[in-house]
Every structure is written in C-alpha cells, then in structure tokens.
Amino acid sequence: MSSTTRRSFRDEIRLALADPQLQAALDSNAEKRSHAIRQAFEGLPESRQSLRQRAHQVRMGTIANLDAYLGQFITNAQAKGLRVHLAADAAQAVEIVLQIARGRVRGWSPSLSRW
C-alpha cells in the first residue's frame, strides 16, 4: 500500500469496529475466555475472593520488603555471571541502556551477553 492510499490508525479502528464478522469473532472469544476462567476457578478448593485476598497480601508483603528482594535478585544474578546496572531514576536508566547499546560500558560486549 503506498503512502498516498495508506489508511490512518483511526480509520483502521473504524473499519474494524464496523466489521460484523470481526466483532462476532471477538465476542465469541471473550465469551470462551470468560467461561474458561469461571471453570478454572470453580475447580479450585478456595473461592475466587479468598485467592484474590491472599494474592493481595503476598503483593503487599513483597512491596514492603522490596529492598530485600532486590538485593537477593542482584546477588543471585551476579552469582550467575550477570552484570546488574542500577539507576537512580528513569533518565539515568535510559542513559545506561544507551551506553550499552553504543558499546561504551566497560566490560560489556554483545559476545559476553548471557541472554
């Protein structure tokens, strides 16, 4: 499709919303997923609400101890030979990534990457 006949993103959305076959397929998929989720929770010994409450407690406990978990992650990653970069804020994180991409981080090269 040439740039002169190229449709905008909003035009594509309007076309998709107006497509009855696509809408029927999306509705069917949503119903199947909803049914599958209900079945999965019905098969568990605890209620969905009880599981949600436990998950919330785990999440809050993790957040409360985030520094300890971060330290544990860093220790484990370094023990496996990975290099961990820490940034004080988003801008510094972007700068670290750019330096890695430019090959300017001492001791790092694509051939040394383990991921």
Textual characterization of the structure:
The protein is mainly alpha-helical. It has a domain at 1-52. Helix content is 66%, strand content 0%. The protein has helices at residues 9-18, 20-42, 48-64, 66-79, 90-101. It is flat. The mean pLDDT is 88.
Please identify the structural class as seen in this structure: mainly alpha
Low-pLDDT runs: none
Radius of gyration: 24 Å
H-E string: HHHHH
Range of strand content? under 5%
**First and last CA, distance:** 37 Å
Average of the residue pLDDT scores:
88
Brief summary of the model shown:
The protein is mainly α and 115 residues long.
Topology:
Elements: H1 9-18, H2 20-42, H3 48-64, H4 66-79, H5 90-101
Please name the defining characteristics of this protein:
115 residues; mainly alpha
